[in-house]
Amino acid sequence: MSGSLPYVLILYYSRSGATATMAQQMADGVEQVAGIEARLRTVPPVSPTCEATSPEIPDEGAVYVELDDLRHCSALALGSPTRFGNMAAPLKYFLDTTSSLWINGALIDKPASAFTSSASLHGGQESTLLTMLVPLLHHGMVYAGVPYSATELIATQTGGTPYGTSHLAGPRSDRSVDEHERALCVAQGKRLAKLALAMQTMREEAS
To answer: Which domain of life does this protein belong to (predicted)?
Structure first.
């Protein structure tokens, strides 16, 4: 990565690895578009113990997100496992700290999307994606789902919705992301990258 290219921030929380795998597949889709790159970031877990602290750098995987990662992104992909039909608490906790970006309108007219994973097929995938959409709209972002031109939406028998890619992890959270789900992640990443470039030009022309 050059460090000078615009980037799509792929921000996720993952416990069993499925959401992290989806994030990487989405990054692969972003990287297929010339002139933009993917930046993978995660959030630390939330502990009920007030004295608990997390290391500044995770032992593995993406590094922890900072506000500036979000401030300077050209687009955002938000990923979380389902938690009773909603996003996981660590991701929600981070979003609750973004008021300064909202006050300054830092994310207005930037495209955004979401992805999720659940243990059961009807475990709240679509409601999770829709609730993840809400704070993005408050920030003035432009939401982009997955259109049916991604034919895997019709073929899949597990994950995949027009609101964003989803994955069926199974009751033990050990089911791998399958070929249809991977293809949808890649397609979602590519679409977000193309929209990011187009809308960056629009924002520059309007300023």
So the answer is: Bacteria
Sequence spans of domains, the chain: 7-45+55-205
Residues in the chain: 207
Given a cut of 70, is residue 119 above it in pLDDT? Answer: yes
Q: What pTM was estimated for this model as a whole?
A: 0.92
pLDDT of residue 164: 97
Nearest Cα to 105, choosing from 5, 193, 206?
206
Of 95, 101, 92, nearest to 128 by C-alpha is 92
Report the C-alpha dihedral over residues 148, 150, 156, 162, rounded to 10 degrees: -50
CB atoms within 10 A of CB 169: 25
Phi, psi of 65 (to 5 degrees): -75, 150
**CATH topology classification for 7-45+55-205:** Rossmann fold (3.40.50)
pLDDT of residue 53: 59
Residues whose CB falls within 8 Å of the CB of residue 197, separated by 6 or more in sequence, listed in order: 6, 33, 35, 36, 74
Separation of alpha carbons 179 and 10, rounded Å: 20
- Tell me the per-residue pLDDT of 73-96, one tens digit each, with 9 for 90 and over: 999 999 999 999 999 999 999 999
